[in-house]
Amino acid sequence: MAGRSKFYSEKPYVIKNCIDQRKEIFVAKVKVYFPKSEYNNLLSLPPIFRNIEIENREEVIGEYMYSQAQKHSLPITKKDRKLTTLLDTNDQFMAFAVFEKNSTYEPFVRTMMNLRIQAILAGSTKEKFYKLINNASYGYDTLNTEKFGKIKMLDKAGTFIAQHHPNHIGTRRISANTFAVQTKPKTATCFTSIQSGVFTLDNAKYWYLNYIYNFMYKCLDRKRFHFVLADTDSIYIAIAGDPTKDCRQQFESIVTDKQFYDQHVYQYLPDPNKDIYDYKKILGFGIENEGYELTSLGPKFYSMIVNKWNKEKQQYEFKPKITSKGISKTQDISHSDYVNVINKDIVKKGINGTVKMYNNIMSSIQVEKYALTGFNNKSIVLRNQCCCPYIKGLTANDYIIKCQ
């Protein structure tokens, strides 16, 4: 089904009515369970991805993060909805709708990927064009867009009416007679094949976990690497390797099962003895950045000193790579600012600017935001800065730090 559908957030059963019934169909019901005896072995990277509601109370997010928010007067809401990793399903079992079997997406991806590689070899700018087609085709609009609110610029009369609507979320005053009103939409439109969107995203998470649990944990010394932060399609790992080698040694110095490692490593990572077709293979992993220092304050908030090749000088140079979600890149944020948040407990503010038009009048709006705070409620952060998952039936007080 590659047509247009609408997700009704209040009536999930309507989704099934949007899908044409075909002969080749299947139903997938997901129920995950891990015995409590295995919890300690899974704490490094919990294997369940789930979007949950988190109450910002001390017994939920922990004393360390709660006191951090109170100390710096951080504007936190009573509840947040976050995509995080868990050890259980929070007593919620996921059942997929009935889908038509779709086998046409795979050859499309291979064709576009081959065209992209040919453009790279030819030095053509079409490489970015084919990359955009691939990234936009898998279902970027199949994400949980029904969770995001819409913001309208209204006058006093329109704001008064909107605030009495059941879908009203919040209001912010912009000027004397202009208000930004946020509402929750009733529907979310999707133009992409649901199979391609839903199952491509879920398969990415599965392959991600398959690499960690069925490769890394089986042949590497788990005491010598640490997951610093992770996203849906990337992961940053700190490795205690050989101090006599440079930062491009990868996992060579922490291999425990050499035979298993040599047999399977290039099923995932690129083989240096092969060409770009192997480096860009589908379901493969590529090394994006390598360096000696990485400071992370939470998901999508990190600064890394990377070792990059300078084509002009024909040598490697160390440069900071800074990522701060929701903060304008024009802000004066440096690597030392990230370090100061952890070592000196210093928060940093920034200003985001935008332009709005209302009644044919262009207005420049500047909003002061907390840029770097160190506050993270996607997991329970302990006093020693270990990040632990939320577990159904347990509170933050149930985690115990054992002194070495």
TrEMBL record:
Alphabetized InterPro entries for the sequence: DNA/RNA_pol_sf, DNA_pol_palm_dom_sf
Lineage summary: Eukaryota, Metamonada, Preaxostyla, Oxymonadida, Streblomastigidae
Protein name as it appears in the record: DNA-directed DNA polymerase
